Amino acid sequence: MLISCGKSEPRRVAEKALDSVIDEDYRGYFDCVYFPADKQEEKETAISIIEEKVKKAKEKGTKDNNVPVSYEFVSEQVNDDAGTAIETFNIKYASGKTEKSEVNLKKEEDGKWYIENKK
Hints:
- By secondary structure, this protein is of the alpha+beta class.
- The chain has helices at 10-22, 26-31, 40-60; strands at 68-79, 84-93, 98-107, 113-115.
- Helix content is 34%, strand content 29%.
- The chain has a 4-stranded antiparallel sheet, with helices on one face.
- The two termini are 19 Å apart.
């Protein structure tokens, strides 16, 4: 069973994923990443690992300057024929640094958009 990340428009999926990371909702983020039904265990493992790392960092009082704190939409390229999209954002990190970043998405067999899982 696949769980989508809400409205299935590429920009909304990318924004939901970014909002989830900013809000430290890692399950919400991974719901936006494509995992086939037979790979749901890998998804759960990834969520657990990240949640544990964040918990340990907080316990130590460590601040991660590479955590996004806000973003601004820049552009969108959608190829409906190929079922792909690239959403570009300026992402501001806790360190104050801003960086342009692309989010690659793919429309899957269920007709919904997901962030491509490069793994």
